[in-house]
Amino acid sequence: MDTLALSLSKINSGDTAFVLVCAALVMFMTPGLAFFYGGLVRRKNVLGVLMQCFAMMCVISIQWVLFGYSLAFSPGNGFIGGLQWAGLKGVGLIPNPGYAATIPHTAFMIFQAMFAIITPALIIGAFAERMKFSAFLLFSILWATFVYDPVCYWVWGSGGWLKKMGVLDFAGGSVVHINAGIAALVAALFIGKRKGVGVTSPHNLPFSVLGAGMLWFGWFGFNSGSALAANGLAASAFVATNTAGAAAGLTWMILEWALNGKPTLLGICTGAVTGLAAVTPASGFIGPVTSIFVGAAAGIFCYFMISVAKNKLGYDDTLDAFGAHGIGGIWGVLATGLFASMAVNPAGANGLFFGNPGQFRVQLIATLATIAYSFAVTFLIFKLVDITVGVRVKEKEETIGLDLTQHHEQAYTVLE
């Protein structure tokens, strides 16, 4: 049997089918995010949010094929990958055992592409209703290239410095949630508050509930698929994901009920998303009971960040991208360092509460490094974009709404 035939014989059809289905589920999350965010903004900006999410799917898909995947995963220097796989040269049917030994390299690549798409899309929640579409496109390409791809390489790339240090991030706590959450905070601070906006209500709450459901559904592909095989670890991650999301949603609901007198549909949906974000890095390393605690704690931390701290600090993170994903991601990465257990995943490591305090130190280093890098480089990208095309729409355009001024469309022709 020749070398090619031998390599192809190692492909497991079940694993391949599983990962491809999970890639489709993760892709489904970006339209889910569009509905979740779109329902929360004012009616004059809903198409702007949907357009940004859909454009992200197109732009990053091309960036990933041309050079993004290569920068994030090909052999590099510890900080970033090289360009050996640019244009997907050398990325074919043969498995890459450094990443996934039983599926084609192309299957691993396209699964990771969906992560690369949704991560910058999360940032949209911070600058919704006031960013130029041209600025959005330029920012997204630059951020994916100079922030997402390097951090992805640090954590998951075969030569990444954090991976060599032994960081545990099963499905993207630092790569996705901390990274995007900190960028969202920078966006809110850099662009400034919306004009003349006080307390606003979602213009279409059913849209947001639909989006939250789509996100929860897609999250099973996000986390379970990160096992990269149809095996027991994938099932364990599935259970941890669902349990943490449920625990966070219930916790948020109870907090609202106790503190405000009424539980809200938006609250329970937001809570569930925070739990799903928090369990992402830990999902392949913790059991179901631990995931209840991780999710419940995420609900508490994110609730007070969004409902209390944000108002006191005075920044305008429109749809709470930092409060949900940044805070949830930070807690999730640190919680992994506390609760990870080799009884769940022998290929991982034990956390602090299982006798390995060194793992918590590694998780803390990964958290701080991601925060510092994402904050600094995102700020520089915003400065460059502002100098080049200008970040924010004019005040008159903001008043009219981005649907008409940026896209010459409107979602609703009959006003109530």
TrEMBL record:
<keyword id="KW-0472">Membrane</keyword>
<dbReference type="GO" id="GO:0005886">
    <property type="term" value="C:plasma membrane"/>
</dbReference>
<dbReference type="GO" id="GO:0008519">
    <property type="term" value="F:ammonium channel activity"/>
</dbReference>
<dbReference type="InterPro" id="IPR024041">
    <property type="entry name" value="NH4_transpt_AmtB-like_dom"/>
</dbReference>
<dbReference type="Pfam" id="PF00909">
    <property type="entry name" value="Ammonium_transp"/>
</dbReference>
<feature type="transmembrane region" description="Helical">
    <location>
        <begin position="16"/>
        <end position="37"/>
    </location>
</feature>
<keyword id="KW-0924">Ammonia transport</keyword>
<dbReference type="InterPro" id="IPR001905">
    <property type="entry name" value="Ammonium_transpt"/>
</dbReference>
<feature type="transmembrane region" description="Helical">
    <location>
        <begin position="265"/>
        <end position="286"/>
    </location>
</feature>
<feature type="transmembrane region" description="Helical">
    <location>
        <begin position="292"/>
        <end position="309"/>
    </location>
</feature>
<feature type="transmembrane region" description="Helical">
    <location>
        <begin position="364"/>
        <end position="385"/>
    </location>
</feature>
<feature type="transmembrane region" description="Helical">
    <location>
        <begin position="228"/>
        <end position="253"/>
    </location>
</feature>
<keyword id="KW-1003">Cell membrane</keyword>
<feature type="transmembrane region" description="Helical">
    <location>
        <begin position="176"/>
        <end position="192"/>
    </location>
</feature>
<keyword id="KW-0813">Transport</keyword>
<feature type="transmembrane region" description="Helical">
    <location>
        <begin position="135"/>
        <end position="156"/>
    </location>
</feature>
<keyword id="KW-1133">Transmembrane helix</keyword>
<feature type="transmembrane region" description="Helical">
    <location>
        <begin position="107"/>
        <end position="128"/>
    </location>
</feature>
<dbReference type="InterPro" id="IPR029020">
    <property type="entry name" value="Ammonium/urea_transptr"/>
</dbReference>
<feature type="transmembrane region" description="Helical">
    <location>
        <begin position="49"/>
        <end position="69"/>
    </location>
</feature>
<feature type="domain" description="Ammonium transporter AmtB-like">
    <location>
        <begin position="17"/>
        <end position="412"/>
    </location>
</feature>
<dbReference type="InterPro" id="IPR018047">
    <property type="entry name" value="Ammonium_transpt_CS"/>
</dbReference>
<feature type="transmembrane region" description="Helical">
    <location>
        <begin position="321"/>
        <end position="344"/>
    </location>
</feature>
<feature type="transmembrane region" description="Helical">
    <location>
        <begin position="204"/>
        <end position="222"/>
    </location>
</feature>
<keyword id="KW-0812">Transmembrane</keyword>
<comment type="similarity">
    <text>Belongs to the ammonia transporter channel (TC 1.A.11.2) family.</text>
</comment>
<protein>
    <recommendedName>
        <fullName>Ammonium transporter</fullName>
    </recommendedName>
</protein>
